[in-house]
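call fold target=Phage tail tape measure protein
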Amino acid sequence: SPAIEMYDALNDAASKGIDDQALKAVQRDALRFSTTYGASAVEFVQSTESINSAIAGLTGNELPKVTKVANTLAFALKSTAAETAEFMGQMFGNFSADAERLGRVQFAEQLAGKMVYMRKTFGTEMATIKDLMEGARGVGTNYGVGLDEQLAVLGQLNRTLGTEASSAYEGFMTGAVEGAKKLGLSFT
């Protein structure tokens, strides 16, 4: 029965160290989410574990809010909460200074908005963006390029170069910085 499944999901999350207050908020949000989108409240609760492990350091207050953002993004992009958690974990890791500066919840909300924009503008899926960011191996971040610019460049390159986009970006960034050094210039 759904009630038993919800009880089990909450107990599983609690056994993974997620506190009761956070779980109460998650359960409330899960039921609203289920009613609004016709999606599984149990899966919403279960996603809390993957989000909590993917994004280090979320507080009991932040976890329910980020869980709601991740599940809403997953629904909007026809993805899964697990894929969204993995993607968000990577972005939080790559852009930890931004997440700390903005606050983790606001960073998650902005990231969700950026992903919807990337889908609408460039037709890129979240998994593709994740692969592009991994493929570029943090070169943009290493040279001080912000998330928005990296997404825009990688989205545009992906349109024309496909899977070669991240290596082209990495090559350009590395070459531009090396060339600038030879000329006595700095782009950062």
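return ok
The chain has eleven helices and no strands. The radius of gyration is 19 Å.
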